[in-house]
Design a protein that fits this description.
single chain, globular, kinase activity, seven-stranded mixed β-sheet, alpha+beta, 18 helices, six-stranded mixed β-sheet, 513 residues, kinase
Length: 513
């Protein structure tokens, strides 16, 4: 049986899966690891951890019953947003850990850019703004704070580009990963921007010369590696791309207007379009499908499911006890929260437990419950948390609607949040859209496998596949939607009103004055 392999290098684990010509998953395996956080706001990883996990997952999948290694036609790699990229020397040996997406150490570089670079021009060229999330500010940090590393660096490689080199021996970067660096990528020309590189003081020769579509092969599998895995030599290694766009592809987003919300630990909402406005505070890059034409524009909350987990872990010990050995605190909270009206009886929650990304872009933003009274109980707070994260979703969706693309009239949701019927109904009511989910697990590794399938001729992504089943989960209630419209307006007023206090509380020196 002919098959392809999709690999996704995540922040906390790597996963590989094998699919057939219908897109059906035949085998899958994951391997976990940790993020290194040597200082507050720092988050980095050595690429050897990723490579070991990729090999472990590949071997486990190829040993699974029903999988014939000789039938594998190709593979593709999706990866977390690698921020700075991996600094490697001329022999492609890593010189420093990769400063990944959640690393926030480059705040001084952000301030420098705001003071010395024309931000309007930067936005016009790159379709993006400036924040320590973006890779170009992390590259500037490496140059300023690790000059000995910078001097020895031959390339700065995104995670999937580095793994593709390990697999094929070829150096290339896909357009989605290049665009997500922000700052130095010309979104219209689909190439590096020499103008912005000069303005930011970054070196063009440290960036891969070869830019390719996410669905294009970068090279063939190395003979030594093929022999050790039992695969054919020279099967194509497909470029791949950024995991958020890959998961969106797996959820069926293939044309402008398709949009998907991924709600797990964090929340990411993305839409396919063909024009951007950096002033709306979202992130844009070429999509992993039709990357010469289509863009993937997204935004998200840093703590979505993490807000829910924090609340339950911190305040719901009694509910965990009541649930017993085989239940969960959620089993206790959901029925009570479901009976509450929109707004949880006068309660709002700002889900900024680790600062916030789009469209706020404020590392010093903080979370809070507003409207608390002696009347409120845990299930009120639980519902308010679900609603607060959903308001953050709508905040990003409204910013996306300003890009000029007409959104599909329904919203697809994937991720751990789909286990909650209550949350799906809240999302439908807040966004005024029917909510659909998949019966199967839809994720970035599947998107990578689909690209590999298209590149090898095993799949045709213009045709419906049998890999998943879309299910309607909730339809909006007009009465609830009207109440949520009013609450969302109040939610949007909270951050600008409370911002000075948030910043004061987050400035340690000022508290000692």
């Amino acid at each position: 049986m002919e098959t392809v392999i999709g690999i996704d290098i995540g922040t906390q684990s790597t996963k590989a899966l094998v699919i057939d010509h219908h897109g059906r998953i035949l085998a899958e395996h994951s391997q976990g690891y940790r993020v290194d956080t040597p200082r507050p706001l720092w988050a980095e990883q050595w690429p050897d951890v990723w490579w070991e996990a990729v090999l472990g997952c590949l071997r486990a999948c190829l040993e699974a019953p029903g999988v014939d290694p000789r039938g594998v036609k190709g593979l593709c790699v999706s990866s977390l947003y690698g921020g700075s990229g991996i600094p490697v020397d001329a022999e492609i040996r890593p010189l420093h850990p990769c400063l990944i997406w959640m690393d926030r150490r480059a705040e001084a570089q952000v301030q420098w850019v705001k003071e010395h670079v024309n931000l309007t021009r930067l936005g016009d060229i790159t379709g993006n703004s400036v924040d320590s999330y973006y890779g170009f500010t992390k590259m500037m940090w490496l140059k300023a704070e690790r000059p000995e590393v910078w001097e020895r660096t031959r390339y700065l490689l995104p995670p999937n580009s580095y793994i593709n080199y390990c697999l094929s021996g070829e150096i290339a970067i896909d357009h989605s990963s290049a665009g997500n660096i922000g700052g130095i990528y010309d979104l219209a020309a689909r190439t590096w921007s020499q103008e912005m590189l000069d303005a930011l003081g970054l070196d063009r020769d440290k960036l891969p010369t070869r830019l390719v579509d996410s669905g294009a092969p970068v090279g063939g599998l190395l003979p030594s590696l093929a022999d050790s895995l039992g695969l054919h030599t020279d099967i194509p290694v497909v470029a791949g791309g950024v995991d958020a766009a890959m998961a969106t592809l797996a959820a069926g987003a293939t044309r402008p207007g398709n949009h998907v919300a991924m709600i797990g630990t964090s929340m990411c909402w993305g839409v396919i379009n063909q024009r951007v406005d950096a002033g709306q505070g979202l992130i844009s890059m070429p999509h992993v499908l039709n990357s010469d034409r289509d863009l993937y524009t997204f935004g998200g909350a840093l703590t979505a499911g993490a807000s829910v987990s924090w609340f339950v872990d911190t305040l719901c010990g009694e509910d965990r006890v009541a649930a017993g050995e085989h239940g969960s605190a959620y089993d206790q909270l959901e029925p009570l929260a479901r009976d509450l009206p929109p707004g949880a009886d006068g309660l709002l929650f700002l889900p900024y437990l680790m600062g916030e990304r789009s469209p706020v872009w404020d590392a010093q933003a903080s979370a809070g419950f507003i409207g608390l009274s002696l009347y409120h109980r845990r299930h009120h707070l639980y519902r308010a948390v679900l609603e607060g994260v959903t308001f953050a979703l709508r905040h990003n969706m409204e910013a996306g609607s300003q890009q000029g693309v007409t959104l599909d009239a329904h919203l697809i949701v994937v991720g751990g949040a789909t286990r909650s019927d209550l949350w799906m109904q809240i999302i439908a009511d807040v966004t005024r859209m029917p909510v659909y989910t998949y019966r199967e697990n839809v994720e970035a590794a599947l998107g990578a496998a689909l690209l590999a399938g298209q590149a090898t001729g095993l799949l045709d992504l213009t045709q419906p596949l049998q890999h998943s089943t879309l299910v309607e989960r909730a339809r909006p209630s007009e009465a609830a939607a009207q109440q949520y419209d009013e609450l969302f307006d109040l939610y949007c007023q909270l951050y600008p009103t409370l911002k000075p206090i948030m910043h004061r509380l987050n400035t340690t020196d000022s508290l000692g004055e």
